[in-house]
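INFO worker-7 received task bundle
INFO bundle size: 2
INFO processing item 0
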Amino acid sequence: MSKAEKLKNANAHLPPCLQVLHGALLDFDDTAGTAEMQFDVSEQFCHSVNVVQGGNVTVMLDAAMSHALFMQQADVAAIPTLELKVSFLEPTLAGRIVARGKVVKCGKSIAFLEGSLINPAGQLAAVASATAKVVRKKED
């Protein structure tokens, strides 16, 4: 499958929680273990003064980190998060937001991931690190 076909397939199967944030996988590098996603977040996901609620920021970071692993390893069925740390550095306002994920290390059953989020002003708004369980597809 070509890279364009993989992107199209990934975007066709985004879960509803990412669809509602108007998420899309823009790019990935399976060799480097990276992925870049874009979200067009409306004010309905903000609390006060147009600031995106932290849980929604976390969703975007988690999605980018997970997609980095999904796109790197075709035999991954699920990636339940075991531990997640998010640091909020700048406000994330509604608008176009970019989230990047990276696979730091992946073993047979555990993955270490990192993420960053760029707000509509182009600032690094949040960073994350996660430990996830890697659930592999069963062989037939």
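INFO item 0 finished
INFO processing item 1
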Amino acid sequence: MTPLAAVADTEAGSTFTTLMSHVAQAFEALGAAVLVAGVIWSIVAAIAGWRRTGSAGRAYQVLRQAFGGSLLLGLEVLVAADLIRTVVVAPTLDNVLVLGLIVLIRTFLSFSLETEIEGVPPWRRAMASGLGTIKRAPDAARGPESG
């Protein structure tokens, strides 16, 4: 490879790294915007629920569910930003280990939030709705067994 080609490759790599750094920053900004919009939307939805039902308990439940969903979405976007930054911009062993820790924490938060929002752990959700309901339908159609 000629010295001029090496300089061109270095410049192209630097340009790509800079571009991906900006993409990661855009994802971070989007994640923050999702969180802010989620808080605002959650409050508006809770107030609407409170006015409609007159129940502060129901309003609180709406607030928790709406904000929990927004928080999950915001976390997903922020993890995407960390993933881009780690894999493309600065792929060092330390950064990969930090990313692994972030993903581990996010997974725990995601399970916790989903359990809080749905009222059922994710691994039991199939039995509470969807496929679990379909599996139980024939038994329910037969009625109670005489014994």
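INFO item 1 finished
INFO post-check item 1: Helices lie at 3-53, 56-89, 93-118, 125-128, 131-142.
INFO post-check item 1: The chain has a mean pLDDT of 80.
INFO worker-7 idle
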